[in-house]
Amino acid sequence: MRIYKVGGAVRDRLLGKPVTDIDWVVVGATTEEMLAKGFRPVGADFPVFLHPKSGEEYALARTERKSGRGYGGFTFHASPEVTLEEDLIRRDLTINAMAEDDQQNLTDPYHGQRDLEARLLRHVSPAFAEDPLRVLRVARFAARYATLGFTVAPETLALMRQLSESGELEALTPERSWKEISRALMEDQPQVFLEVLRACGALKVLMPEVDALFGVPQPPAHHPEIDTGAHTLSVLQQAALHKQPLTVRWACLLHDLGKGLTPEDEWPRHIAHEFKGLKLIKAVNERFKVPKDCQELALLVGEYHTHGHRALELKPSTLLELLQSFDIYRRPQRFEEFIAACEMDARGRKGLEERSYPQADYLRGAATAARSVAVQPLLEKGFKGPELGEEIKRERLKALKAYKEATSV
Ligand code: CTP
């Protein structure tokens, strides 16, 4: 049996990037031999094993990686006769289809090293089409390596377009798609992920609500970039620049979906887009079975981002409603994330990236004022039940009025 390091570990070493996890391919072995050496099988009938000590993945060389339509449709062919070259040709990209032995001798039959140097994401063979998830993977790699100058090879983009138009993307499970989407959003240039998906027609299939924002104008006085799609990408870029967590990035991507519903004769204004967008945000959330914290923040940011921008003009009663909607008393972190998303939205406008956002501190101050109302003295005064609730609210409103007066010039 011969063992090689493959995939991301080889690619990232050649790029001079840190290698986090290592995948291995085993040529010339049977399942029985692997088990006899103490490897633990990953699944009942999948030729992947975990090393008894390191826990790293060792896969038997295999062909036929076809993931059929629908759930769990994976087939494969693994046998000791499958060669390293046969295994590599069924992988997604040439830069992911290199192998290395324990002496760091490179096996690179499909010229991955040449494409690394040319900064090209190029598919290895027509077998690329066996797994439609690769459309998302390529877009994710494009986002990850954009700063290094990588682009998608035109023939690969054409293949991705074919796959997107074939309806194959619709067969992807929400879990697999979300894994790619969430990883891509956490890259340094997440907007590139969306640009590539859009360029190959996959965005229209996966998130038509986001795709629809391109070509929709906004008022130039507030949005010098005009196009809502371009704005959305800039907001996401700002979120990455400011190292925001996934929740904030997801909310940034979906915050303006309602603008895609505005009738053309109302352009460039988007009256009530915050509210109109909610059902679209909900649909995207559900489509990918998005984690609850991301779902929640996206909906709240969608509904209230304009409140965030207008924070300094809000009446104390409106401010209080906003704070109550966020349940700032029990969920302080979520309110911070809302503020961050609003700030990214404001910065994601052409030429206004560096403009300060005083709303952020103002909102934090308002939250502090509302939280400063102590409940104990009200209990001591004998308030209870719904009356107590009303009294707390009244006190909070008083605190916010005082806050507004103290901060106004
Ligand atoms: N692979 C593939 N098609 C897929 C998934 C994986 O061809 N749909 C192959 C690629 O050769 C890839 C390797 O399996 O390099 C390992 O996959 P994975 O661990 O998912 O990705 P990495 O390339 O290691 O990249 P990352 O750094 O993002 O984990």
Question: What's the gist of this structure?
Answer:
With 409 residues, the protein is of the alpha+beta class. It contains 20 helices and 11 strands.
Rg: 26 Å
How many β strands by DSSP? 11
Instruction: State the distance separating the first and last CA atoms.
Output: 78 Å
Mean pLDDT across all residues, rounded?
A: 93
Q: Which small-molecule species are bound to the chains here?
A: cytidine-5'-triphosphate
CATH topology assignment of the domain at 1-111: Beta Polymerase, domain 2
Number of helical stretches of at least 4 residues: 20
**Could you name the ranges where pLDDT drops below 50 across 5 or more consecutive residues?**
none
Helix content estimate: 40-55%
Largest sheet: 7 strands, mixed
If classified by CATH, what would the architecture of the domain at 1-111 be? 2-Layer Sandwich
CATH class bucket of the domain at 1-111: Alpha Beta
Q: DSSP strand (E) fraction? A: 5-15%
**Overall 3D shape:** elongated
What are the key terms here?
single chain; 409 residues; alpha+beta; Beta Polymerase, domain 2; seven-stranded mixed sheet; 11 strands
Structure commentary:
This protein is α+β, with helices and mostly antiparallel strands and 409 residues long. Among the domains are: 111 residues, Beta Polymerase, domain 2 (2-Layer Sandwich); 36 residues. Helices cover 50% and strands 9% of the residues. The strands form 3 sheets. Strands 3-4-5-2-1-8-9 form a 7-stranded mixed β-sheet. Strands 6-7 form a two-stranded antiparallel sheet. Strand 4 and strand 5 form a beta hairpin. Helix 11 packs across helix 17 and helix 12 crosses helix 15. The longest helix is centred in the C-terminal third of the chain and has 23 residues. It is elongated. It binds cytidine-5'-triphosphate. The site of cytidine-5'-triphosphate (CTP) has 11 residues, from helix 5.
